[in-house]
Amino acid sequence: MSSTPHEEEDFAPTTTPGYKPTAAKTVDEYAQLDANDESLARWKASLGIVPGAAVAAGEGPKVTVLTLELASPTLPAGKHLSLNIQDPEQLVNVKKNPITIKEGVEYNVRISFKVNHSIISGVRYMQVVKRSGVRVDKMEQMLGSYGPHPKGEAYIKNFDPEESPSGMLARTGTYNVRSRVVDDDGEVYADWDWSFKLAKEW
Question: Where is this region: Disordered (predicted)?
Fold first, then answer.
């Protein structure tokens, strides 16, 4: 998916003064790192890093983003707003038929993803929302650090709650969103477009 220089500016990550990402390491390198540090050993175990354990070869993408969901306590029973990022047809359809979000309610974005190999750190989810080509919102949320799930299962990350806009002006037109999962080194793991509109009801 190509981007203009201006669009890339929209996705410039927030930086912390003085912070410099460390060089990427393999799972084996992490396993051997400070082997006698007990707290580090617990952290590595939480990522599924065990010294001497067999590690899958690093082929294909490090991360596969599976779904993006919108969750809200105000959603009617049985209603589920989920977008399968791996389904190109669904991604095309959601641009033609935007997701409907009720105005003035609390909701949060949730994504599920798999870490296929290696350790990911400094990975963040970003989304830029535009209406009529003008940026109206930008969200940036850290995913954290993860290794491949020991059972091959997906991770689910819930982001901070937000409140959807309200009022007649907010309900006019469609909001176009570009979402991206990227790390500190600028490696993009997923990049997709989707749309939503605001209404009085879900």
Answer: 1-23
Closest CA to 97 of 165, 171, 174, 164: 174
Q: Which of 95, 68, 83 is nearest to 174 (CA)?
A: 95
pLDDT in tens, 77-99: 989 899 999 999 999 999 999 99
pTM equals 0.74
Write out the two tokens for 153: 């299962």
Residue 56 backbone phi and psi in degrees, to 5: -65, 145
For position 188, which CATH number holds? Answer: 2.70.50.30
Contact 25, 119 (CB under 8 A): yes
Tell me which of 7, 33, 55 is where a domain ends: 55
How far from 160 is each of 51, 106, 107, 139, 141, CA to CA, in Å? 35, 10, 9, 10, 8
pLDDT tens, position by position, 91-127: 999 999 999 999 999 999 999 999 998 888 889 999 9
Q: Are residues 64 and 77 in the same domain?
A: yes
